[in-house]
Amino acid sequence: MSTSAIPVSRAGFLDRERIIAAAGFNRWLVPPAALAIHLCIGMVYGLSVFWLPLSRALGVQKPVACAGLTLMSALTTRTCDWRVSDVTMVFELGILVLGISAALWGGWLERAGPRRAGVVAALCWSGGLLLGALAVYIHQLWLFLLGIGVLGGVGLGLGYISPVSTLIKWFPDRRGMATGMAIMGFGGGAMIGAPLANLLMVRFRSADQVGVWQTLAVLGVVYLVFMLGGAFGYRVPPAGWLPVGWTAPVATARRMVAPGHVHLRNAHRTPQFWLIWVVLCMNVTAGIGVIAMASPMLQEIFGGALIGRPEVGFTALDDNGHRAVAAIAAGFAGLLSLFNIGGRFFWASLSDRLGRKNTFYTFFVLGILLYAAAPWSAHAGSRVLFVGLMCVILSMYGGGFATVPAYLSDIFGTQFVGAIHGRLLTAWSTAGVVGPVIITYIREAQIAAGVPRALVYDRTMYYLAGFLVIGLTANLLVRPLAPRWFMSQAEVAALQARERTGDAHAHGSFGIDAGRFDGTALLAWSVVGIPILWGVWITVRNAAALLG
């Protein structure tokens, strides 16, 4: 029997057929389910809180250093502390595996449905953290990389793309806003997870323990519960469902809207896919350059001015001065994180009005101007202006992530948008590895050439602006697809056959539809909203010293 003929009553608990929404379902219950998963996997951006404690996991008070330690020997040593450069590889490995797993299993996700994918993501990400806790406990770096980097990276990839197709189908009238709400959570994961991890490490710290393995174990269990809750909260609309009173917009010069659906096997054969790949890659490369050097950049540019001693450069500060400016720079990183999160919702929602192509034009044109202006603001000694420029830049970095799924759905249709998005995320993996390497090389080369620390970032900013010029050119070349790329109505009907149940035009949501924001929706949003508000409060409190 074909899968399209399987009755819902015989479908498995995790199968797509079992989560087709019934009449009256409130579509606003789906975004908090997606947020629950994204807030958990977004902790990958907060893993840096573990680097220094891990570098003295054996020595506790100070690292147990071993002469001649190489990466190969570090993988299996049980008597030497790991170096920071050893443990930071888990982040790069996780982002690399994220893109690969999203590309490999995006097609499976479209067939299996978001619930099954969400459950697998929960088991992989939480299992990776638990395996990482075991690795720290027995002090085996290879297991740490395998657990969080590889197994956790698979969870990152599946968890990241699991809600995209579903949300776009539930919100055809607000595609940008819908994906912005979910992907906002990925940016917010570190805002919540990093301070939570710090609190847990303080709780578990002792004379002979740095508290990392216990913290990873607790986070693994907590994230498993939240992610499973999100996965079981997923519902998909019946095929043909539309919000009451809404009709699909007509394609215009400002808004490209696909008249049909492109099959996954053909999407990567179009120039539009690779142009949007370059658009995302360049936007991420430029933004991740700022993220990678945010803390040292602020410290080296402003030096003693951050602590009321403008006459003292960064290299002339004593140990107490270095600690003080480092604490303020941490607040800067937190503030950038907050704008990264807010930008994901703001810009993606705005793209529903501007159109996706025009939104990316804004990112690139405004970004070029801001990157070029950053050195001027630094030389002028205007800390507030410099921080403001960086915050806007990071908002557009996050906005690019949140807007690109809607961009893909406008070009390729919605039938395979989750899988197509998964393949596009290889652009993120590329930028996540190449971007920091290029930026670090430029910085080190200038320092080696004797360029003063306060000036080494000038050329770096101009290089980042150059990446945006490439992205701007690629975005300019994006055009609507030719009709030959779209599937026939018969092909689409065959794919959607198992998604039809009951009244294909059942509806129920607040806002544009006739539903209402009931108690269930309020509870679902509270579960994810309260942690977000806590993270915002912590971030604003820590950033106060920067602007004060």
Walkthrough of the structure:
By secondary structure, this protein is an all-alpha fold. Helix content is 67%, strand content 0%. It has 20 helices and no strands. It has helices at residues 30-41, 51-54, 71-74, 84-87, 89-112, 114-138, 141-161, 164-170, 175-204, 212-233, 264-267, 271-302, 319-354, 356-379, 383-412, 417-424, 426-448, 456-477, 489-496, 519-547. It is globular and about 70 Å long. The protein starts with 29 loop residues before the first helix and ends with a helix. Mean pLDDT is 85; it is low at 1-9 and 502-515.
In short, what is this structure?
With 548 residues, the protein is an all-alpha fold.
Count of DSSP H/I helices: 20
Total number of beta strands: 0
Biggest sheet features: none
Strand coverage percent: under 5%
The whole-number mean of residue pLDDT values reads 85
Structural class: mainly alpha
* Rounded radius of gyration (Å): 24 Å
Give the topology string: H per helix, E per strand: HHHHHHHHHHHHHHHHHHHH
Fraction of residues in helix: 55-70%
The coarse overall form would be globular
Q: End-to-end distance, in Å? A: 68 Å
Model regions low in confidence, pLDDT < 50 over at least 5 residues = 1-9, 502-515
